[in-house]
Amino acid sequence: MDIQELETTAALAQIELGQGDLQKLGDAVSQMLDNFRKMNELDTTGLEPTTHALVKDNRVRPDSVEPSHLADALVERSPELEDRFLVIPNVL
Amino acid sequence: MDTLETRWKQFSAKKTAYLAYAKPLEQKVHSFLSFRPEAATAGAGPLAGLPFAVKDNIAVKDFPLTCGSKMLESLNSPYTATGVARLEAAGATVIGKTNLDEFGMGSSNEQSAFGATHNPWDVSRVAGGSSGGSAAAVAAGLVPFALGTDTGGSVRQPASFCGVYGLKPTYGTVSRYGMTAYASSLEVMGIASKSLELTRKVYDLMKGRDEHDQTSLDPEPGNTRQVKTIAVLDGLTDLEPAVEKAYQATLKTLRDLGYTLLPVHLGTLDYAVAAYYTIATAEASANLARFNGIRYGLRPVYAENPEDLIRKSRTAGFGDEVKTRIMLGTYVLRSGFQDQYYTKAQKVRTAIRNELQTVFDRADLLLTPTFPTRAFAHGDKSMTPYQQKLADKFTVTANLTGVPALSFPAAVEDGLPVGMQFTAPAFEEARLFEAAARFATVVGVPDCPGTSLDWSK
Amino acid sequence: MYQTHVGLEIHIHLNTESKVFCGCKAHFGDEPNTNVCPVCMGYPGVLPVLNEHALELAYIVSRALNCELSKRTLFDRKNYFYPDMPKNYQITQFHEPVGQHGTIEFALPDGSVKKVRIHDVHLEEDAGKMIHAGDMTLLDYNRAGYSLLEVVTEPDLNSGEEAEAFLHAFQRVVRYLGVSDGNMEEGSMKCDTNVSINTVGAGLGTKVEIKNLNSSRFVKKSIEYETRRQATVLEGGNKVSQETRLWNENRDVTETMRTKEGGLDYRYFPEPDLPPFVPDAAFLKRIEVAQVELPLARKLRLAREFGLTREQADFVTDHRFTAEFFERAAQLTGGVPHAAGVAIANWLMGDVQKELNHFSLTLEASPLTADRLAQLQKLLDSGRIHSKIAKTLLVAVFEEDKEPEALLKEKGLEALTTEDQLAPIVEGVFAAHPAVVEAVKAGDARQKGFLVGQVMKATGGRAAPDLVNALLAKRLG
Question: Other C-beta atoms within 10 Å of C195: how many?
């Protein structure tokens, strides 16, 4: 994978790569991609992709309110708060 | 009830003796990220009084949920996973959270942000991964059983390295609610224990449909046929000699026990690792996107804007292996590459399912080694992260197809345990237990030296 | 000459009690971050659990829009980072949406009917809310996980005016179906547009997406602005660039948000946490049962059956309740349908509306029922009251919440329609005003009105005017 592709991918993943990382992670990623390409040897014509390992019946839940009673506990876990709002810097 | 279970039932009454036994051992092994045996209480129910350990990517209310990552170092879980809650309801108590490769990504436990776990059989060696802490804690006699998560072999491989049983149940039979997602379509909660009977009991208590997990299932009633035919792979190569030796001995034992061994060829097995890592990393790239330092987790000291905050949090919070897998998963899903990688892998997965089905049309179980090597040494240059991934070839098939598999202690070679693996059709856990129990009647694998239940006397 | 092509992406909040993938209350206006749980806050280890009612409403809308209904619907993850989105992927539908390839007809302002094709209808989750305050952004996740339905049209609309009319028609459809409030001002309906222009007959041009449209008026204005802007670009010999633009409501212009090059790659893939849903016969039956006659069909039918003008038909079918009220009242009134229909429509558009405004009530909440309005009209038709009394009775119904018949008796307002009832009163007026009588007899016709007025006054307005005139004429010789 070239540097350009690596950087595009890192940007999509919201990860910053320093110079050393580019080399190290780039090599590791490329090595795995080479391995993945071996899948092309296997003829999969006519096969549907498996997206769910085992599927039985429909699963839904009724539309009823079931409060978690955890709202306060969740708010408290945020690194920065203003009243009950979670805070991040603004786009300036 | 076996002796192990009986002895452990006295745990809460003999905590002082336990602590005197456990603390020095744990210092050597480092299997726990949080360890709170003092708080344990004697509950009521089928597991009354039994302490257990939980891999630290599984939520237990008011315990840390670090996932072995700096990202979540400060997070306490506000809720409890369904599987854990069911065991607590049966009288068992969580006494600690065990070490793991960061977010379950690794086969050595060396990817933990908080230092690796050491193998109790030889502390210069790894405990395996990613549920290395759980397997090591069990092997060291610190708990009668421990929960892990198995995405591509993460319970079975460390169980093999540490000489204990490691069960990967049928996908969905144990709820994933509360299990930090790495690869959602592949993983399931698993159990490590020295006792096969306790493993089965814990599985029975955890299994079944959960309203918090719509992929969870009630196991279908298994057909009661006895295991007669066991498939074995034709032309198995690249095994470490000690593993090869144990494998041959296992074949002989099974034959002696009266099983018919049926050689089979699994052509798709060569592509299982590629398909597995394509799918696992793709799903991981989305599953780990939620970690951004906003609602919880690592927050940078300073950020100019939201994007800067998210990027700094993720860059500082994730280790290299996690970053590599996120990058890989992001790439294989990108438009222009998705068909070639991700979709192709899902089709390969179908091919593997189909081929495995043909095996189970003719055989009751499949036997393979769990891993091509025994526990390797810390810093072993021949076991790079890439080599470790390739070595997952025997375990990932069960994850790709959703079927259950069990790693069982089969031998000790030069002081290190070797595990073998039975794989069964979906919902046929009973066959795994049946065959492993029969095997254990003739092959006794000793406990890890230096461990005992003597503290309970 | 250029032609404008407009497609819409409409989002509506579905009327569900709880969120689409967790049990939190779906409710606006509560304290920030109170209707949240580990699932909608994106905690590690949690899983989405699909709300059946949300899925059912999605199928109901798809069916109403004549879509092909998915036999195996599936959810997908749409991956992008944004602070208001807890998981940094949105659970939506990409590969197998609930409905595809539909059509909807609606009326243009000139009354003609236009057909728009529906690309697809899919169910997804809403994000939280971001409030910008100085150097901080405040986050509230109460809205995160609301059930959101997205309806995507083909670019079949050709002007801002058409788009606005379409939105109003769509709003009526979802309200008729009872699936959403469809209120753009309150945020329960949102709309993004894509606009392209090209020489007439040359097909679509380069597509520009416009976001931040908080009312149907902005949709109209932004399309008109964008049409002019793109025409200027083309006339200058340049190419329109494919991009996303934001509507600036203060300056009435669209502004570049992001260009195609910096565009996002959403990396859609099937959501492994939610198994596919295969609607069974019972489910599909419920979808059929929930179907209603849609506003346009109803309008055309009512206009035909009851002889309504376009204005009347528009008015009575704007809300489903009004339409049902109208139809029932007109049927109960009986007689010639056209006469009854026009009479009821006039009531609804005139005096009833006036009283509703006066009492600040909706028709639904008011004491006036279709049955009561029909009673009133029947009293009029039978001559037992005349129109002035009818209006008095209508007010009484609003004030006292009683049947018009009962009020009529209670207040003694029934018209005096026989000679026996009126002759003595006429006698009395003649006796009281001999001078006026003489003047009228002498030919002063203007004074006759005074006598009529006196009779009316004496009867509290209940005297049938025709009979009064006849009696006066007779008595005056």
Answer: 29
Helix or strand (DSSP H, E) at C89: strand C89-92
pLDDT in the model for residue C260: 59
Q: What is the mean pLDDT of chain B?
A: 95
Closest CA to B278 of A31, A52, A40, A32: A32
Give the residue carrying structure tokens 């993945």: A36
d(CA C97, CA C94): 6
Which residue is listed with tokens 């079944």?
A: B208
Strand pairing report for B32-35 and B51-55: unpaired
**Separation between Cα atoms, residue C127 and residue C134, nearest integer Å:** 22
Q: How far is CA C415 from the centre of its chain?
A: 40
Q: Write out chain C residues lying below 8 Å of B178, CB-based.
A: 45-46
Beta bridge partners of A10: none
Query: Tokens 């390739």 sit at which residue?
Result: B390
| Helix extents (H) in C337-464 | 337-347, 353-359, 370-381, 387-400, 404-411, 419-432, 434-441, 446-458
From the list B139, B141, B146, the residue with the least C-alpha distance to B8 is B141
Question: If DSSP codes are grouped into helix, strand and coil, which group holds residue B67?
Answer: coil
The torsion angles phi and psi of C306, rounded to 5 degrees, stand at: -115, 10
C43 to B296: CB separation less than 8 angstroms, yes or no: yes
In this complex, the residue of B294, B331, B341 whose CB is nearest that of residue A9 is B331
The pair of structure tokens assigned to B20 is 């005197």
Cβ atoms of B162 and B128 within 8 Å: the answer is yes
In terms of Cβ atoms closer than 10 Å to its own Cβ (0-12, 13-18, 19+), residue B39 is exposed
Residues of C in contact with A87 (CB under 8 A): 136-139
Name the pTM for this structure.
Answer: 0.94
Q: Which of residues 78-97 of C touch B (CB under 8 A)?
A: 79, 81, 83, 86-89
C213-240: per-residue pLDDT in tens?
Answer: 999 999 999 999 999 999 999 999 999 9
Task: Average the pLDDT over C317-342 and give the result.
Answer: 95
Asked if residue C250 lies in contact with residue B314, where contact means CB atoms within 8 angstroms, the answer is no
Tell me: pLDDT of A91 over 70: yes
Dump pLDDT digits (tens) for B265-284.
999 999 999 999 999 999 99
Which of C41, C53, C84, C273 best tests the A interface by mutation, with the highest count of A CBs <10 A? C41
Chosen from C37, C39, C143, C267 to mutate, greatest number of chain A CBs within 10 A: C37
Instruction: Provide the CA B238 distance to its chain's centre, in angstroms.
Output: 23
Tokens of A22: 């580019």
pLDDT in tens, C115-148: 999 999 999 999 999 999 989 999 999 999 999 9
Rounded to 5, what percent of chain A is helix, strand, coil?
A: 40, 10, 50
Distance CA A26, CA A23 (A): 5
Q: What rounded mean pLDDT belongs to chain C?
A: 94
B195: three-class secondary structure by DSSP: coil
Closest CA to C147 of C45, C268, C17: C17
Q: What is the 3-state secondary structure (H, E, C) of B224-282?
A: CCCCCEEEEECCCCCCCHHHHHHHHHHHHHHHHCCCEEEEECCHHHHHHHHHHHHHHHH
> Residue C124: helix, strand or coil by DSSP?
strand
ipTM over 0.95? The verdict is yes
The residue type found at C31 is E
How is the beta sheet containing B93-98 ordered, strand by strand? B32-35, B93-98, B51-55, B145-150, B188-193, B165-168, B405-413, B416-423, B365-369, B229-233, B260-264
CA distance A37 to chain B (A): 8
Measured CA angle at B235 (ends B229, B236), to 5 deg = 85
